[in-house]
Amino acid sequence: MSAYASMQKDANYIDGTWCAADGGDVISVTNPATGAEIGTVPNAGAAEARRAIAAAEAAFPAYAALTVTERGALLRRLHAEIVDHADALAALLTAEQGKPLAEAKAEVLSSAAYVQWFAEEARRADGAVIPSPWPGRKLMTTRHPVGVVAAITPWNFPSSMLARKLGAALAAGCTAVVKPASATPYSGLVWALLAERAGFPPGVVNVITGSARAIGGELTSNPAVRKLTFTGSTEIGKELIRASAGTVKKVSMELGGNAPFIVFDDADLDAAVEGAMIAKFRNAGQTCICSNRVYAQAGIYDAFVAKLAEKAAALRVAPGDEPGSEQGPLVDMAALAKTEELIADAVERGATVAAGGGRHDRGGLFFQPTVLTEATADMRLAQEEIFGPVAPVFRFETEAEAIAAANDTEYGLAAYAYTRDLGRTFRLQDGLEYGLIGINEVLIVTPEVPFGGLKESGLGKEGSWQGLDDYLETKYTCVGGLTG
Ligand code: ADP
After folding, report:
1. Which are the contacts of 112, defined by CB distance < 8 A and separation ≥ 6?
2. Are 420 and 266 in contact (CB under 8 A)?
3. Is 78 in contact with 129 (CB distance < 8 Å)?
4. Exposure winner among 266, 338, 350, 361, fewest CB in 10 A?
5. Are 153 and 456 in contact (CB under 8 A)?
6. How far apart are CA 269 and CA 126, in angstroms?
């Protein structure tokens, strides 16, 4: 029996019932490290989505009416379920997604941390009493759950992306319909199992797998859904925003990134290399906040590149469940092909391969950690999200040039810089058009802070108090006739 058998649910969860797709169709789920089938999940469509929405709509009034103490208790039990089963959940995540087990465990524990954070935040969804400009009137605001929330999540962080959405929705008093990515559905379906065990009433959490277009079409057009929260590509995000316009839904979008990673001459070079390794190669570069473009200042360019190439070449590429694995497989053949294409384009335009450069000897979906030098702005990887283990290093001379190059993209999610100059640090804070900025640090995300992109990287924030705010509506009430 696998380490995750107890967490692997092969069915959808609608209105508190585990069910198959109406037509009995299934999708095969494979392990990207081996190509072996893990199992199958329902290939549901619009009809099942409609039923899930109806269940969430029916469950909403009673769930929203629970006290914050009661909702907080449910969330704390959900948190405990995740922590208690963290090892099995991590094994499941690695099996379907490929990342090293240590990264999977960290993701699962981060999911737990978000749920705990929102369990606490639920108590702070307060309103205000506003000083009245009129005699005999009281003006106040109250905050209310938006209603049924639809959540669509990607395959790169199949557990924690849902934690940020479900944690906030459930804390706010919303009910939810979730559609996880078809490549990694189990880490989504298991949320239903954990919610069921934690005692959430039927209909509060519904999880369906299957056709993105059919389910997405229903989730975006159904008037009962009051909010859509999505993490995925900018391209699909734009489609979903357009589709949500018909019923004027609130939307939260965590979309693509093209993170710059800037190393200045005055940086602690070893710390910068360490940071670049994590920011680039975590999850094999399949992270929306991972550095896409590395900019090194001319004075340290050669030294930085040499150290980075050495570290990259030494990275242990292996199946995620193999002890010591530091980089697992890519998610699928399309990802592998795109990574190859971007390298070929860069080399054709003058880049040099300093480490890696192609498929790994292990075969299958494994790819060599790659460092390219003399990258330039005309290369495709300067504008496109690589989503693979490739670090192109660009050369720059001045701070102004680096900031301008960093901002020369429609994306605005994460940016990193290494410098020991305090004045420069704050010029970067002002100058970088990014929602998340790490100076001398790359692991900067935690439930306490707002995660979200600027420009075409998204709308809304996840985590922090703002993460709850995005699931609440504000009502203003004026009570008059109070003069005696
Ligand atoms: P990525 O593949 O980079 O994660 P996508 O944007 O393609 O990004 O997918 C993210 C999520 O959006 C997945 O759950 C996917 O199934 C879903 N999705 C893709 N296309 C659509 C669509 N047209 N409507 C609704 N959901 C979609």
Report:
1. 79, 82, 83, 86, 163
2. yes
3. no
4. 361
5. no
6. 46
CA-closest residue to ligand 1 atom 15: 181
All residue ranges of the chain with pLDDT < 70 are none
- Record the tokens describing residue 302, joined without a space: 């050669």
Give the residue whose CA is nearest to atom 27 of ligand 1.
212
Angstrom CA distances, 371 to 127, 232, 303, 355, 387, stand at 51, 26, 13, 5, 14
Considering all CA atoms of the chain, what is the largest pairwise distance in Å, rounded to the nearest integer? 85
Q: What's the CA-to-centroid distance between 256 and ligand 1, angstroms?
A: 12
In this structure, the residues whose C-beta lies within 6 A of any atom of ligand 1 are 152-155, 179, 181-182, 212-213, 216, 232-233, 236, 239-240
Cα angle 194-61-210, degrees, rounded to a multiple of 5: 45
Structure tokens, 262: 């800037």
Counting ligand 1 atoms within 8 A of each CB, the residue from 43, 96, 152 with the most, and so the one to mutate, is 152
pTM of the model: 0.97
Q: Give the H/E segment covering residue 407.
A: helix 399-407
Q: What is the per-residue pLDDT across 18-68, written as a single tens digit (0 to 9) for each? A: 999 999 999 999 999 999 999 999 999 999 999 999 999 999 999 999 999
Report how far ligand 1's centroid is from the alpha carbon of 98 (Å).
Answer: 19
State the DSSP code for 7: G
User: Coil, helix or strand for 258?
Assistant: coil
DSSP H/E element including 252:
strand 250-254
Number of other CB atoms surrounding residue 139 within 10 Å: 16
